[in-house]
Write a structure and sequence with these properties.
By secondary structure, this protein is an alpha/beta fold. The chain has 5 helices and 5 strands; from the N terminus they run βαβαβαβαβα. Strands 2-1-3-4-5 form a 5-stranded parallel β-sheet, sandwiched between helices. β4, α4 and β5 form a beta-alpha-beta unit. α2 runs parallel beside α3.
Length: 142
C-alpha cells in the first residue's frame, strides 16, 4: 500500500499513542495526532489527509460537528468515526454527514484497520475519478 496520510483525532492521548503505534507497525506510516476538533480542522486546512480517524465525544467541538466542517474543507478526505459512545442515531448522522464508516472502540483495531484500508482505497479512487474528469474536460475544450 502506498503511504497514506492519516490523522487521528481523539481527546484521549494514550489511545492516540496506541493507535498510532499499531498503525505504524501495520502500514509503516506515522499518523499525525491531535486532541480536539478545532485542532483537527486547523490541520486539515494546512495538510491533505487521505483518512481521518475521528472520535465523537470530545470536549468543545464534538466529532459530528468536526466531521461536518472537515468535509466542507476537504470533501475527498475519508473519515472513519471511532467511538466508545455508539448508537444507531449517531451512526445514521455520521453517514449523512459523509463519514466513510463508523467503528465502536470496543471492536478495536480488528475492525478499524480494514475500515482504514477501505477508506484509503476510496480516497485514491476518488482522486483518480476527479483526475479523469478534469482531463476529459480539458481535452474537450482543446
Amino acid at each position: 500500500m502506498k503511504k497514506m496520510k492519516l490523522l487521528i483525532v481523539d481527546d484521549e492521548p494514550a489511545l492516540c499513542k496506541v493507535l498510532a503505534d499499531r498503525l505504524h507497525v501495520l502500514y509503516g506510516i506515522t499518523p499525525e495526532v491531535c486532541h480536539s476538533g478545532e485542532d483537527a480542522l486547523g490541520k486539515v486546512r494546512e495538510n491533505v489527509y487521505d483518512v481521518v480517524i475521528l472520535d465523537i465525544e470530545m470536549p468543545g467541538m464534538d466529532g459530528m460537528e468536526t466531521l461536518k466542517r472537515l468535509k466542507e474543507i476537504s470533501p475527498k478526505t475519508q473519515v472513519v468515526m471511532f467511538t466508545g459512545h455508539g448508537s444507531e442515531e449517531r451512526y445514521i448522522l455520521s453517514d449523512t454527514l459523509g463519514a466513510f464508516n463508523y467503528v465502536d472502540k470496543i471492536d478495536g483495531l480488528s475492525k478499524l484497520a480494514p475500515m482504514i484500508e477501505g477508506a484509503y482505497h476510496l480516497r485514491k479512487a476518488l482522486e483518480d475519478v476527479y483526475t479523469d474528469v478534469a482531463l476529459n474536460e480539458y481535452s474537450r475544450r482543446n
